[in-house]
Amino acid sequence: MIEGPYFTLTVLGALGTGLMAGVFCAFSTFVMRGLGSLPPTKAVAAMNAINRAAPRPAFMIVFVGSAVLCAVLAVVTFVVWPEGATVELLVGSGLYLIGAFGVTVTANVPRNAALLKLEPGSEEANAYWRTYLREWTVWNHVRMVASAGATLSYVLALT
User: Fold this and answer.
1) Which Pfam families does the UniProt entry name for this protein (predicted)?
2) In the chain, where are the structural domains located?
């Protein structure tokens, strides 16, 4: 069983990835569905407002902090190589770093940036909205599952 500061890092990793799984789950299950029920003009304006509000300290501390914790846990796991928890720790770190953080950077953020460039109500924004909604939500499902999987892996490492 892992102990001391390593145990604390794993608990914090589980909490951070679990919180992010909850955020992604909320978006996948009702936020995007609610935005999808709005006329494109209002939906684009609302999503752009969300995208401007998201990169605030409270969210970024959990989102980026979880990535840092996962990276630290992966490095420490390679150095310490704990008995009985190595696979779970590496899987948890990989799931979050690639499936949540990596997908955010490569799939969701570029779509957000493209949407932010469009004027709500414009023909271009209205046409792009349905594609954005579908693609962004698919990638968000990936982030949700990866974050939940990371949380589960870290919890299993603690047992």
Assistant:
1) Anthrone_oxy (PF08592)
2) 4-158
